[in-house]
């Protein structure tokens, strides 16, 4: 991988060294906006739109990989993550590909959250710091210090070259941010009338058309490196909403013994091939809680790179549990990929919860009321030593 | 009973049910060796393993007496137009393709392979046609079939069991040390009637023959000396071995008698009882010293 | 190639075994480090390797192999490695224009056609590993990563078993080579087709390496447990399988193995 300088001269977190890898023979990547190389495996990383999710995933979403979100019961928070991903693409200047069978992509783009740029951001964070206990804010810095770049203020108001931004869910993005962005859209009801050109290979026709569309965009816009004349390389961010639901013509959500068990997995395999050979990344939300046949979800997990499940507390008994009173739901990280390496960045802690406080969406370790982080750290360390001790009969 | 079956008592369809943990091919080899010793003809139909693997461990005199049909090399005709035995031809083999003359032992390795690829009812019809037959015809051949119990749904296994005259199910935990006795559950329904079921343990001798050890002993009593604890890094460590106990849970007869001879303290003899009743009893109450209260709250030390 | 694993398996690149079927199983964790081990082991041993890589791209394996001291590009150039990149082959199959298709049918053509058997894939393996006269490699090796993907792509479990059957016939019995296959399995998995394939393969394997994540959860110093099952019972009549259990920790260029409970963090 070429030595890519950190975009925008951002000050790095204390744990990240300034060591840069030497260029491999023949692969020279010009600096691409909105990306940074991973320390561990040299892959380019993108921000998912949520800095705390980036931290949980070990730095961000790697280029060429798939981020699969298992939707929460009412689809609220997974939809938010989907929009954060696309909004981050707008802010970084990436191209977007928005696919949905439910909402028209233009409506989705109109509802993207507004980024917190310039001085308004510092004020927002300052309000947060004084409103809640200062320890909370200090704690989130402590947990994330190894990976997180704290965003610094930038001069340019429109396109930002930092890594990771915060968004205000209560406001929508202003249309002038979209002007330089190329958005490709795929709205299934409109596409069904057109004729599919590629071999169907026994796959659901909706998935076939979607794959064809993605392949065409990647090829025509040169994301797979097929157009060497293109000077400025860019990333394509693909977002697919509620894949596998009945609106896509698939019956895995409605039936215990669906007719076609393989369409979704074939789709994911071909998509994986397309992602690996292009400068793109994809977020897919899947209504996993509706899929009756658990074997399908196991196969889907094996075919995806990063799998994160959201569980919201709405309507469940955990809503009244005092342990979770500050949080809105749990985050389950089911899988993190091992890319170009034997090891992967698994975070130490597995008890993650999220909260949508005021306008910020954060993911944190569940803190037991009345304890401080030092205790939690010791608790985690003791738990690990107990794990080791338990293993000897 | 197992030895009697191996020695020629088995008739009709004999199912040997095994699993990945307890393999059953060695039991098939025991049957084959015994049949060759009795000068019977043995035809081995192979689908799952090559010939070298099936006859591994058999003595050379046994090996040269075996007849083979090779369904392993090319059962689906992918490699050439004319394989020795195709999967679909198995029915015809059973119906009319058997070598004539004399008692025959047919060994099928394995029935599971065929069940996964052919429809079970057709296969069972072919087997049924083999086992039945007009009453005055020559004795039908004995068919030993290897069946992997962990590959099929339980309903299919039960249905096959209903067809078989004998079922040998290899089970129990895999033995910890090589050469240890293995467990088989024998269910036999001979032609003359009646059903008998028994669990037997057996070992296999290096030349392939079977040595039955009868009914397996019950689980070893506690307190009996356990095998020596394994050293670190030794092979065969499967975990779960009982550590040596530092106390005994059983009493010998003498100790039991001695225990019975002791009077328990709550059992009063009449003189003692009268002594206790006559003593005037007074209840003396001495109040405890007042509590030493510490005004400090230990929770104040926490810096929360 | 991990030196400690070679010691545990009593294997050495100077004298690779012949005619063996090795099954790699993983449960609740990722066992692909074993695939990297065997790939570099057999390349170092001088065997001709046919690698059916269905799940990751060539560059992924190449970068990891370079950390282990082997260059896959060089191996491909000198003809020692035949690499089938499943992702690329699938894209070529589905998106190629009609006039671009070459004379050879794609090994993965079962995806697009109604034939449900994997004969094309088997023919690819056979032509790759059948020794040409000019070859001087020691024994062919087939490596598959991973077999469960074929089920996701629409192959029936019996079709997958037939493919493995024929590979055993040609590679293990006829050419006296080795096969190494990775499968996923879970104890309480609801994927019955996958369980059927895994159980069936267990019956034929000479060596099973079963990698499991810890039941107690994630631990920084012990990444999992590996069970090594040597199926001696397949070869000799009176012998039973040998089972050994160790724990391991994966590092950047190496994997260390130790007896249970004796991780360096505890000692």
Automatic annotation (TrEMBL), chain A:
* GO biological process terms held by the UniProt record: tRNA processing
UniProt-annotated location(s):
Cytoplasm; Nucleus
**Which terms are listed as keywords in the entry?**
Cytoplasm, Nucleus, tRNA processing
User: Its pathway?
Assistant: tRNA modification; 5-methoxycarbonylmethyl-2-thiouridine-tRNA biosynthesis
Q: Which superkingdom?
A: Eukaryota
This protein's GO cellular component annotations are: cytoplasm; nucleus
Record keyword Cytoplasm present: yes
> Could you say which protein family the record assigns here?
Belongs to the ELP4 family.
Stated role: Component of the elongator complex which is required for multiple tRNA modifications, including mcm5U (5-methoxycarbonylmethyl uridine), mcm5s2U (5-methoxycarbonylmethyl-2-thiouridine), and ncm5U (5-carbamoylmethyl uridine). The elongator complex catalyzes the formation of carboxymethyluridine in the wobble base at position 34 in tRNAs.
Q: Could you identify this protein by its name?
A: Elongator complex protein 4
- State the organism of origin: Grus japonensis
Taxonomy of origin reads: Eukaryota, Metazoa, Chordata, Craniata, Vertebrata
UniProtKB/TrEMBL annotation, chain B:
Where does this protein have compositionally biased stretches of type Low complexity? 172-184
GO process terms (BP)? tRNA processing
- This protein's major location comes to cytoplasm
Q: Which InterPro entries match?
A: Elp5, P-loop_NTPase
Give UniProt keywords alphabetically.
Cytoplasm, Nucleus, tRNA processing
Q: In which pathway does it act?
A: tRNA modification; 5-methoxycarbonylmethyl-2-thiouridine-tRNA biosynthesis
The record's subcellular location field reads: Cytoplasm; Nucleus
List cellular component terms (GO): cytoplasm; nucleus
Residue span of region Disordered: 172-244, 256-304
Residue ranges of coiled coil: none
Compositional bias annotation for Pro residues: 215-229
The highest taxon in the source lineage is Eukaryota
Q: Where is the composition biased (Acidic residues)?
A: 289-304
Family that this chain belongs to: Belongs to the ELP5 family.
Protein's name in the database: Elongator complex protein 5
UniProtKB/TrEMBL annotation, chain C:
Looking up InterPro entries in the UniProt record yields: ELP6, P-loop_NTPase
User: Cross-referenced CDD domains, in alphabetical order?
Assistant: Elp6
What UniProt keywords are attached to this protein's entry?
A: Cytoplasm, Nucleus, tRNA processing
- Where does this one sit in the cell? Cytoplasm; Nucleus
Q: In which pathway does it act?
A: tRNA modification; 5-methoxycarbonylmethyl-2-thiouridine-tRNA biosynthesis
Any single biological process term in GO: tRNA processing
What are the GO cellular component annotations?
cytoplasm; nucleus
Q: Which family does it belong to?
A: Belongs to the ELP6 family.
The identity of this protein, by name, is Elongator complex protein 6
């Amino acid at each position: 991988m070429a030595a890519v300088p950190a975009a925008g001269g951002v000050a790095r977190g204390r744990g990240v060294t300034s060591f840069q890898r030497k260029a491999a023979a023949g692969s020279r990547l010009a600096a691409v906006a909105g990306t940074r190389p991973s320390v561990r495996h040299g892959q380019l990383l993108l921000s998912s739109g949520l800095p705390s999710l980036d931290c949980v995933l070990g730095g961000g979403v790697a280029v060429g990989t798939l981020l699969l979100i298992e939707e929460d019961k009412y689809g609220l928070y997974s939809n938010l993550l989907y929009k954060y991903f696309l909004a981050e693409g707008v802010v970084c200047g990436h191209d977007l590909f928005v696919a949905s069978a439910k909402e028209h992509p233009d409506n989705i783009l109109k509802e993207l959250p507004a980024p917190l740029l310039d001085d308004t951001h510092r004020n927002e964070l300052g309000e947060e710091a004084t409103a809640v206990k200062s320890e909370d804010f200090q704690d989130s810095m402590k947990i994330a210090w190894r990976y997180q770049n704290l965003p610094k203020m930038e001069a340019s108001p429109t396109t930002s070259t930092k890594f990771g931004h915060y968004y205000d869910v209560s406001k929508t993005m202003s249309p002038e941010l979209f002007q330089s962005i190329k958005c490709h859209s795929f709205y299934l009801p409109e596409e069904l009338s057109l004729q599919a050109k590629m071999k169907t290979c026994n796959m659901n026709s909706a998935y076939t058309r979607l794959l064809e569309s993605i392949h065409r965009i990647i090829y025509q816009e040169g994301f797979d490196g097929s157009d060497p004349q293109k000077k400025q390389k860019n990333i394509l961010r693909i977002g697919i909403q509620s894949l596998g639901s009945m609106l896509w013509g698939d019956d895995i959500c409605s039936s215990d013994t669906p007719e076609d068990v393989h369409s979704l997995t074939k789709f994911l395999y071909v998509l994986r091939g397309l992602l690996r050979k292009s400068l793109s990344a994809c977020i897919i939300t899947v209504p996993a809680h509706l899929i009756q046949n658990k074997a399908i979800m196991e196969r889907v997990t094996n075919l995806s790179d990063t799998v994160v499940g959201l569980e919201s507390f709405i309507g469940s008994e955990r809503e009244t549990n005092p342990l979770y009173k500050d949080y809105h739901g749990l985050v389950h990280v089911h899988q993190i990929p091992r890319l170009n390496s034997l090891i992967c960045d698994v975070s130490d802690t597995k008890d993650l919860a999220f909260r949508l406080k005021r306008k910020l969406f954060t993911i944190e370790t569940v803190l037991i009321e009345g304890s401080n982080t030092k205790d939690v750290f010791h608790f985690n360390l003791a738990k690990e030593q107990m794990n080791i001790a338990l293993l000897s009969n | 009973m197992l030895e009697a079956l191996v020695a020629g008592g088995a008739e009709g369809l004999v199912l040997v049910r095994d699993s990945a943990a307890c393999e059953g091919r060695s039991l098939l080899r025991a049957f084959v060796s015994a049949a060759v010793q009795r000068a019977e003809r043995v035809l081995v139909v192979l689908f799952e393993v090559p010939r070298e693997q099936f006859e591994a461990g058999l003595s050379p005199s046994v090996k040269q007496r075996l007849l083979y049909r090779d369904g392993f090399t090319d059962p689906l005709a992918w490699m050439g137009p004319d394989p020795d035995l195709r999967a679909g031809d198995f029915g015809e083999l059973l119906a009319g393709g058997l070598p004539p003359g004399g008692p025959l032992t047919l060994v099928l390795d394995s029935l599971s392979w065929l069940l996964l690829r052919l429809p079970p009812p057709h296969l069972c019809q072919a087997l049924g046609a083999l086992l039945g037959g007009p009453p005055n015809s020559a004795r039908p051949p004995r068919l030993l079939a290897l069946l992997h119990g962990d590959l099929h749904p339980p309903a299919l296994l039960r249905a096959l069991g209903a067809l078989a005259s004998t079922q040998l199910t290899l089970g129990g935990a895999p033995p910890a040390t090589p050469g240890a006795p293995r467990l088989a559950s024998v269910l036999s329904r001979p032609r003359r009637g009646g059903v008998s079921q028994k669990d037997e343990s057996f070992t296999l001798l290096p030349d392939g023959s079977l040595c039955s050890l009868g009914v397996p002993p019950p689980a070893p009593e506690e307190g009996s000396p356990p095998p020596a604890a394994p050293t670190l890094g030794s092979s065969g460590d499967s975990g779960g071995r009982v550590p040596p106990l530092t106390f005994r849970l059983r009493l010998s007869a003498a100790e039991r008698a001695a225990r019975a001879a002791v009077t328990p303290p709550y059992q009063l003899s009449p003189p003692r009882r009268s002594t206790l009743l006559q003593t005037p009893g007074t209840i003396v109450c001495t109040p405890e010293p007042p509590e030493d209260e510490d005004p400090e709250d230990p929770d104040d030390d926490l810096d929360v | 190639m991990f030196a400690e694993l070679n010691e545990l398996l009593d294997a050495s690149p100077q004298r690779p075994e012949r005619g063996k079927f090795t099954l790699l199983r993983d449960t609740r964790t990722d066992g692909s480090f074993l695939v990297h081990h065997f790939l570099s082991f057999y390349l170092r041993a001088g065997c001709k390797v046919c690698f059916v890589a269905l799940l990751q791209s060539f560059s992924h394996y190449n970068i990891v192999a370079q950390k282990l001291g082997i260059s896959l590009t060089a191996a491909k150039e000198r003809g020692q490695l035949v690499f089938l990149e499943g992702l690329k082959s699938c894209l070529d199959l589905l998106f190629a224009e009609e006039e671009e298709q070459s004379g050879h049918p794609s090994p993965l053509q079962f995806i697009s056609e109604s034939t449900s058997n994997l004969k094309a894939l088997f023919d690819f393996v056979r032509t790759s590993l059948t020794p040409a006269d000019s070859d001087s490699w020691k024994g062919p090796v087939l490596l598959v990563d991973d077999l469960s993907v074929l089920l996701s792509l629409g192959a029936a479990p019996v079709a997958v078993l037939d493919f493995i059957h024929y590979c055993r016939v040609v590679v293990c019995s006829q050419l006296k080579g080795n096969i190494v296959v990775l499968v996923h399995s879970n104890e309480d998995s609801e994927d019955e087709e996958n369980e059927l394939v895994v159980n069936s393969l267990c019956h034929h394997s000479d060596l099973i390496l079963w990698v499991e994540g810890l039941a107690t959860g994630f631990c920084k110093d012990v990444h999992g447990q590996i069970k090594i099952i040597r199926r001696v019972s397949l070869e000799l009549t009176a012998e039973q399988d040998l089972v050994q259990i160790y724990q391991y920790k994966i590092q950047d260029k190496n994997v260390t193995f130790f007896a249970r409970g004796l991780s360096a963090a505890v000692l």
